[in-house]
Design a protein that fits this description.
The chain has 476 residues and is α+β, with helices and mostly antiparallel strands.
Length: 476
């Protein structure tokens, strides 16, 4: 039920108060809109704002390549058993030092001793057979001599003489055959003596036992391949680091290049070595191609151990007292709304094939294509010239052309430079219109981070760039 007071008209002072509130709200909105428009106009007149860093003189610039590797012994020997049998003695254990020719384990020799005794008995039997054959041969010689005398006196027939001659030859063959059996028995005896000697396992090198894979009482079988009983590292005072180098960095390395590395076991300690081998065989794991680089390392005190993971750094190039710029300046790309002095005019839709808007075979693209073709022909000629056996010259790092944006007299100028080596923070400038103290643009500061065309979004609103341009991020 509606109350009577609600049906009556409101007092004039309430209507005036409501009107005043509405008028104040509209005035506040108008003031806020006017202030926003004024600020936008000021920002448009003020122009883009940039963060800059100065070009500087680097006293020592080093280009480095990093990779991981594994420490290994310089020579690691796997000691196995050439005969089968049960282990009855083990004389060396983990970390024990051994010397070349030292007895480190022994198999049960009972079976091999019995085989040797049997072989020696067979040898004696064969020697006895030789004696019997020689006695029969002497008897056949005497028979032949008597038969010939009787035949000369016409008291024996030609058949008797032929039979005596054949018997003499047969006994001579028996002597040769029995002597061959003696030689065979002697060879068997030597094999059985060697097998008996193989029941004693000796160290082939001086070193340290890294691993022992068997225990006393265990039976080892050497039927198909020699079982590994021990692994001995020779001279742990010298070790190697086998480093997996990415295919993009392998061209920067060379023999006898110095290297440094660290291991987690000794944090804060840097070890040094030298590249001794760059292996040609590639290793492909999950479509990633790497090459093995071998770094020789001195290990006094045997602090480093086989199997440790090493973080290796190679100093591939260095420069002294060079002009350098921060790497952020090389990554900066201007946006479409920025006015850059020194930029070429944008290509028109009517540009021909040979104009600035042509493809890779026109204008500047054609020049680059011809340059690449000339370089390929020169490389082919060099390969032909070295086919006769002459070693090719070393390949030097080729400088790269880049563009920088310099802030001069309130304007941004594009400067083309040639870059050299680079570390993680700065890059060498080989040539270009640049000097120490020039302010290099590194990013836009008047753009909202992440907005299309902002420094975080890059040109055209695509992520990953470092240039400005485009509209600011929508707030609602």
């Amino acid at each position: 039920m509606v109350a009577m007071d609600e049906l009556l008209p409101k007092p004039w002072w309430r209507r005036a108060l409501a009107f005043t509130w509405r008028l104040a709200l509209l005035a506040a909105v108008a003031v806020a809109a006017w202030q926003g428009w004024s600020r936008w106009q000021i920002a448009q007149q003020k122009g883009p704002e940039y963060a800059t860093e100065a070009a500087f003189r680097a006293p020592y610039l080093v280009e480095k390549t990093t990779a991981t590797g594994t420490l290994q012994a310089l020579v690691s020997v796997q000691v196995g058993a050439q005969v089968s049998g049960r282990l009855v003695q083990i004389y060396k254990d983990y970390n024990n030092e051994v010397h070349e020719g030292e007895l480190i384990a022994e198999l049960d020799p009972t079976l091999y001793k019995s085989q040797l005794d049997q072989g020696r008995a067979n040898l004696l039997n064969a020697q006895a057979g030789v004696q019997r054959a020689e006695a029969a041969h002497r008897a056949a010689e005497k028979t032949m001599h008597r038969t010939r005398q009787l035949y000369d006196k016409q008291l024996a027939t030609q058949a008797d003489l032929d039979q005596a001659q054949a018997q003499l030859e047969l006994t001579a063959a028996d002597v040769v055959g029995n002597k061959a059996q003696v030689a065979q028995a002697q060879a068997q005896v030597r094999v059985q003596e060697i097998n008996l000697a193989y029941t004693k396992i000796y160290s082939p090198v001086d070193g340290v036992v890294l691993s022992r894979n068997v225990d006393v009482g265990q039976t080892v079988a050497a039927s198909l391949q020699a079982p590994v009983l021990f692994q001995i590292a020779k001279d742990l005072s010298k070790m190697q680091v086998h480093v997996a180098i990415d295919e993009a960095d392998i061209g920067k390395l060379a023999d006898k290049m110095s290297a440094s590395f660290t291991v987690d076991a000794f944090r804060g300690t840097t070890f040094f070595g030298q590249v001794t081998q760059l292996r040609l065989s590639p290793q492909t794991v999950q479509n990633v191609v790497t090459y093995d680089a071998v770094v020789d390392v001195a290990n006094p005190g045997a602090r480093l151990r086989p199997g440790m993971t090493a973080s290796v750094t190679f100093e591939t190039a260095h420069r002294r007292d060079v002009l350098a710029v921060p790497n952020a300046a090389l990554r900066y790309k201007p946006g479409a709304d920025e006015k850059i002095e020194g930029l070429p005019a944008a290509p028109t839709a009517t540009a021909g094939v040979g104009g600035a808007g042509g493809d890779d075979k026109g204008g500047e693209g054609r020049g680059k294509w011809r340059q690449r073709k000339a370089e390929a022909m020169a490389l082919a000629a060099g390969a032909t010239g070295t086919a006769a056996g002459a070693s090719p010259p070393p390949v030097a790092a080729k400088p790269l052309a880049s563009k920088l944006f310099v802030l001069r007299t309130g304007k941004v100028w594009q400067v083309e430079v040639t870059t050299g080596i680079s570390d993680s923070r700065s890059t060498e400038i080989v040539s270009g219109d640049l000097k120490v103290g020039d302010l290099l643009v590194t990013r836009r500061t008047d753009k909202v981070t992440g907005a299309p065309g902002s420094p975080a979004a890059g040109p055209g609103g695509r992520s990953g760039g470092s240039g400005g341009g485009g509209a600011p991020r929508r707030l609602f």
